[in-house]
């Protein structure tokens, strides 16, 4: 067994459901299996840079499994914006040495994986976990937070359906997903939605209008359009323009003008990231946390714990931190939506 006496722990990037479940699992396993002292850093990598941390014991993680948010706080490190990466890495390592850290576990999204990779390349023992409602981290087929976000989005669509039906309206529902359309696709299938627009498939307004008119012609009283916040029109995509929320904000008027059907917009936004994790996210976050500690105990580091083909696997940080995992055009959820008659805007 590899000796880890002091283990650092932090959550970085946007929060999501399951972070506390993972913090609990890492803390309990690190104490029980490694006999380690756990130091929790506040507000992401900024906490590490400033040595701002506290000791985490059994009592600190009691009762947090199902709690939303992160007891450590998180952040995107904006206070340190402008500093050179080399400088941030050097200062982080100085703090790690000063605090006697033998290893660090980082819970985060793609940005977190990138900085973790830089820390690992500079010599720190690092293991990461994949968190994000966007589900867009490379090297893993699923991230915790995603299942909860899809559950909330699906429930919202169900609620929008009844009011849409009462008023004979088109309901646009904007969900998060800057670079990747995973939430929109899953909620579009489960909701269900009649139109699903994702960043990976630039849309044509005429195609959406035609789909809504065809439904109205079939006597359907309402339609649900799910739009990822990063969805782009074909014209914007061709011009290389991306602006969050642009698609939903523009379409709400464009669709109403073109179809003559009353159209309303609901932006789910941060509601998707808040509150208790689903059972699926509790299990995933807990298992990933336990596996991170097992790997560190076995001397494995410089990896993210991912899931591939249903199995937990160590993924090199070079892969996990190499950019967003977007939806491939041939993904079975895209095929499923098309076969069910949904419009994807193309
Ligand atoms: N390209 C990058 N290279 C190195 N570190 C990064 C990079 N992007 C983000 N980070 C670090 O990771 C932290 C979290 O990243 P961010 O992109 O905000 O969230 P997430 O991890 O959820 O994607 C940032 O505060 C920053 O310290
Ligand atoms: O919390 P912020 O900084 O406003 O960022 C919002 C972004 O965070 C997310 O909720 C999650 O993204 P990350 O996993 O990269 O943090 C995105 O869906 C959304 O675009
Ligand atoms: Mg990110």
From TrEMBL:
Important for substrate specificity, annotated site positions: 111
Binding site for ATP: 14, 76-77, 109-112
Record-annotated active site: 134 (proton acceptor)
Residues in Phosphofructokinase domain copies: 7-296
Enzyme class: transferase
InterPro entries on file: ATP_PFK, ATP_PFK_prok-type, Phosphofructokinase_dom, Phosphofructokinase_III, PKF_sf
Cofactors (names): Mg(2+)
A GO cellular-component term linked to this record: 6-phosphofructokinase complex
Residues involved in substrate binding: 132-134, 169, 176-178, 229, 264, 270-273
Pathways per UniProt: Carbohydrate degradation; glycolysis; D-glyceraldehyde 3-phosphate and glycerone phosphate from D-glucose: step 3/4
Domain of life: Bacteria
Location within or outside the cell: Cytoplasm
Keywords assigned: ATP-binding, Cytoplasm, Glycolysis, Kinase, Magnesium, Metal-binding, Nucleotide-binding, Transferase
Record EC number: 2.7.1.11
A GO biological process held by the record: canonical glycolysis
Binding positions for Mg(2+) per the UniProt entry: 110
Similarity comment: Belongs to the phosphofructokinase type A (PFKA) family. Mixed-substrate PFK group III subfamily.
Subunit structure comment from the entry: Homodimer or homotetramer.
Protein's UniProt name: ATP-dependent 6-phosphofructokinase
Organism: Plasticicumulans lactativorans
Species classification: Bacteria, Pseudomonadati, Pseudomonadota, Gammaproteobacteria, Candidatus Competibacteraceae
